[in-house]
TrEMBL record:
Taxonomy of the source species: Bacteria, Bacillati, Actinomycetota, Actinomycetes, Micrococcales
Protein name: Cell division protein ZapE
Gene3D superfamilies: P-loop containing nucleotide triphosphate hydrolases
Pfam families membership: AFG1_ATPase
Keywords tagged on the record: ATP-binding, Cell cycle, Cell division, Nucleotide-binding
The keyword Thylakoid is assigned to this record: no
GO biological process: cell division
Amino acid sequence: MTQHTSTGVVHLTERTPAVTGTEMLASLVPPPQFDEATFDSYRADPSYPSQEAAKQTLQRFTGRAAPTKKTGLFRRAPKEAPMKPGVYLDGGFGVGKTHLLASVYHALPARRKYFGSFIEYTALVGALGYRNTVDLLRGAELLCIDEFELDDPGDTMVMTRLLGELVASGTKLAATSNTPPNALGEGRFAAQDFLREIHAMSDSFETLRIDGVDYRQRAIDGSAVAMQETEYTRCIADAAADGVASDDAFTDVIRHLAQVHPSRYIRLIDELDLVGLREVQVLTDQSEALRFVAFVDRVYDAQLPVAATGVPLDEVFAEEMLGGGYRKKYLRAVSRLNALTHSASELSARIV
C-alpha cells in the first residue's frame, strides 16, 4: 500500500483536479513501476532477436555499450558510425518498449532530462504556451516520449516543431510509437508514416523495430475478470479499510472523463490503491472510448488493481472499434485491463 493522508472510499466523479505547468514539468519522470528499470532487467525474448538488438543499440545511444572487441592481434575494431540524436522504438504493445525507454532515461547521465507521454508534453504546451515550453525545455540533455500519437494533426505538428527546435539546440530524443494502424499492415507501425509526418526531422531519428508478443498475457489465463456484486463490494471495502479505493458507476466515470483534460487524469487517481467500476457497459462512442484508453494508461502506469462488475473489461470496446483505425490503442488497453483486473481478483482471493 502507498502512503496516505486518509483512508476510505472516494468517488472519481467528485474530483476536479487542476494541474499547473510547474507541476506538469516536475511530473515528467518514468512511472513508478519503471523507477528501477535498467537494460540489465529487460528480459529480451530469445525468440525475437530484434529485442536484444534494440537493447544493444540503445545502450550505445546512452554510452553504456560494452567496448567493441579487437578483431585481431594488432587490429582495431571497425569504427562505428555516430548515432543520430534520436531513437524511435517501433513495435507492438507489451514487447517492453516503455521499459527500454525508461532504461534510456536512467542510463543516460544528464543533469536535466524528462520522461513523459505524448499527451503530457502537449498538455504542457497547452498550459504554458509554445514559446514558454521551448524555453523551459531548452538545455535538457534528453527527452523521452512514450506513446507518440498521430491522432490529432494539430498536436502532432506542434510536437514536431517543438522537437525540431530542441534537437537543434542539442537535446537527444527517445520515443515509442502509438499510432492508428489502418495503413500500417497487420496492426504494425510503419516507420515511414511517422517520418513523413515529421518530415523536417526525419534525419534525426534512427528507427528500431521491436518484435514480440504481449508479455502481460504470458502469465494471465483467460480474459478480464468481471466480479459478482458481493465480491466487488468486499474487495472495495477491504481496500478502503487501510487505504483508499474509488467506487463509481462506469457510465458516470465515462461522463466525468469528458469534463477533465486527459493531462489531469493522473490526479483523478491520486493516493488510490484500487479503482472500482460498477456495471461496465460496452462503449460505442469513439471519443468516449479514446478518453477511457487515456484513463486506463494512467491507471496502468500507477499499477492500480481494477475491480469491476458488468461486462468484462476486455469486451468494453465495440467490435466495430476493434476493426477500425484505433485498433492498436484499444488492444493495448484491453491487455492492460486484463492484467489490472487479475490483480484485483488476486486481492479479493486473499481476503476470503
